[in-house]
Amino acid sequence: MSAAFWLALASLLVVPASADSFDLPHQFVLALGASVLAWRAAAHSVSRRHLVVAVTWLAAALVATLFSELRAASVPALFTLSTAIALSLFVSSTQRWTALLITAWPIAAYALAQALGHDFIDWANVATWCGGTRPFSTLGHPTQLAVWMAMVAVLALEEGQRGTPRLFAWLTAAVCALTCVATLSRAGWLALGVGVLAWAALRFKGNTRRLLPLGGAALVIAALATAVAGPSAILERITHALVAPTRVQLWGTALAGFRHRPWIGWGFDSFLLVDQQFRHPDAWKFEWGGTAAHAHSFPAQVLATQGIAGAVVVVLLIVFVMRTWRRAPSPLLAVVLALAAASMVAFSGVLVLALGWCVLAASMRDVERRMPAWVWFLTLVPLLGTAMLFGASLTGGAAERAAMRADAASSRSRDAAASSRSLTPSPLPEGEGDARARDTARAEFLFRAAASLDVWTGEWPVRHGVWLEQQQKWLAARARYELAVQRAPGVAVFEANVGRMAGRVLDRDGTHQWFERARRHAPLDAHIALDAADAALRLEEFELANDALRTVLGLYPTDGPAWLMLARLRLAQQRPVEARAALEAALDADWRDWPEGAAITRTLLAAIQEGLGDPFLAAETRARKDFVLPSDICGAPSKLGLK
Question: 401: number of CA atoms within 13 Å, CB side?
Answer without folding.
Answer: 10
